[in-house]
Design brief:
Creatine Amidinohydrolase; 6-stranded mixed sheet; 4-stranded mixed sheet; 10 helices; about 35% helix
Length: about 375
Amino acid sequence: MSQESIQQFRAWITEQGLDAFYVTQPQSASYLSGWLNDEEGAGSVVVSAQQQVLLTNPLYSEVAAREAPGWNVVIPTGRNYANAIASLAQEHGWKKIGFESVALSYASYEQLQQAGEGIFTLHPFEETIVNTLRYVKQPYELELLKHAIAITDATFAHLCQWIQPGMTEKDVEWEISRKMVELGADGTSFSSIVASGPNGSMPHAIPGQRQIQRGELITIDMGARYKGYCADMTRTICLGEPAEPRMKEVYETVLRAMKTCEQGLHAGLSGREADALARNVLAEAGLAEYYIHSTGHGVGLEIHENPALSQRAPEDVKLPVGSVVTVEPGVYIPGWTGTRVEDCVLVKEDGVEVLTQSPTELVIQR
């Protein structure tokens, strides 16, 4: 996190009439402090006009001090964060403290309210400028994302040479994890999806012991995490020619929807407009009822971030230059099969740069 962005956050805090802001959402705390730890409860931060405090526990005191230079690392006695914030408020004269209403548990809120009685009042915010700042990737973030995507591409190239009929979905899931770590990833950015044959009709199918067969569609959704940043890619493959002509027809339509969306995307579109680019292609092909999720989402420190490419996205939120989003239309036909194809793209003023480089061919000849 640059000091320029910290100053933007401080200016926003002042504009809201606050003295300080308490950030508990793990990735937002990481984004602000530079300490990339998204373990729930490992660390939170308080920012005021003059102070930037990182609260953590003894398990993380050394790494936090090393990876968050410029931050005052505080280890609350007995891990009582509420009392620590009350002490800081008394010391620095904070009377109004904001917090993220979607990230602070009710129990923690009650503890903080009780500790601050007579010292400060609490003010909830559903959205903060930190969320908006995270939309646009800074140069160092973009480089980390590109590296995570490159590891994902290399892992997929390996899978295409390695995968064989008779392997289980679990075998493939394990090989994805192993290869990504071998290539330098922290690990996977989410639990990989390997959905073969009829399991492909479930967008978030959990890999099981089903053996992969020739001629069936195999949807593989995976991503590497590199220095905290998440890649996300889906490819649908087939070992040999598809068993049914319709499989290829459906796949080609989904691929056309993805490509149409990528070609039409640019900064200034709303998430709804972006979603419609892909959705209209599937609707025109008579597949609308089988497209049951949104077209894309932001990626960064979280695998699912804003901005969203969705029918439910706010109309007044536009895609900014420098955001990185997925484009991932899919078709899921219960009792038969499904297919999805997904890239990560960098949004630019007049288009996008496709960051994912893996080929989109359906068939792997064996």
